[in-house]
Design brief:
Blueprint (H helix, E strand, L loop, with lengths): L1 E5 L12 E10 L2 E10 L10 E13 L2 E13 L2 H4 L8 H11 L3 H23 L3 H27 L17 H35 L15 H17 L2 H4 L4 H13 L2
């Protein structure tokens, strides 16, 4: 049985109305950095509906020829409680076990009895709530935060973990263009260093191979590299093939031939 009653005070925990940018500045060794986070405004949406629902199970039985009734009050839930909570949150397992013994039913039967009555009410309240400004604001907040997390993940993957918050705020507004430029320069320098390291390693290997100083190479079609390693090797091959193409480096094609053998060894 579900009995509608009225609460004396309105629910005070409506959703926050806005997302706000926060700034946190810290200093280390004379250097200051500001990170941009977010919080919610203090102002909340009003929840004017005072309806509440007393949930109980009633049982009729005969005793000494007389019809008697027994009632078990499960809980009382406010209108807005249905949006965030489950009636099972309002009692402990030991209390439920006592009810089951007294009612002489199983736990599955207990939930079936209540859900049969509570599910239509849940659907009604959800439908009504989706028409409110509070619901619309919650959806907008979720979309904005999902976009923020996606942009943050992509940026941090390119420039380093935790760097996004020093450049952009939760709304995607660039707050520190100078630091962003520093990150771009740093990334470019790292890429150039990696490229030069690849080239120097290739040159040393090619020199050793062409001079016959260490002819212990064993080329095989069986590759033991992982897919990620193969992607990296393919990038190395692509960069090196541009660098060592006969039309570019001006040799007799020896470098490209050796590069081709490496490609076969790598299993590309």
């Amino acid at each position: 049985m579900i009995q509608k009653v009225k609460k004396k005070k309105p629910n005070q925990y409506g959703a926050r109305k806005e997302i706000k940018v926060t700034e946190t500045t810290w200093s280390f060794n004379g250097e200051s950095k500001t990170s941009y986070g977010y919080t919610y405004s203090d102002e909340r949406f009003e929840r004017p509906v005072l309806d509440a629902y007393k949930i109980s199970i009633h049982k009729s039985y005969r005793e000494n020829g007389n019809v008697k009734k027994k009632q078990w009050v499960i809980c009382t839930m406010g209108y807005y409680d249905f949006l965030d909570n489950w009636y099972g949150d309002y009692y402990m397992q030991d209390r439920l076990n006592t009810w089951l013994r007294e009612m002489e039913i199983t736990e599955d039967e207990f939930y079936e009895i209540i859900n049969k009555k509570i599910d239509p009410l849940n659907r009604q309240i959800e439908k009504e709530f989706k028409q409110t400004e509070e619901y619309k604001a919650k959806i907008l907040h979720k979309v904005k935060l999902d976009e923020h997390r996606s942009a943050e993940a992509a940026f941090d993957k390119e420039y380093g973990q935790g760097e996004y918050k020093y450049c952009y705020d939760v709304f995607g507004k660039l707050r520190n263009p100078e630091y962003l430029e520093e990150l771009k320069i740093k990334k470019k320098a790292q890429e150039e260093y990696t490229r030069r390291s690849y080239e120097e390693s290739f040159k040393r290997t090619y020199s050793n191979y062409s001079s016959g100083g260490n002819n212990s190479y064993s080329f095989t079609s069986q590759s033991t590299y992982t897919d990620d390693e193969k992607k990296l090797l393919h990038e190395i091959y692509r960069m090196a093939s541009k660098k060592f193409h006969p039309d570019v480096c001006g040799d007799n094609g020896g470098k490209m031939k050796f590069l081709t053998k490496l490609k076969e060894q790598w299993g590309l």
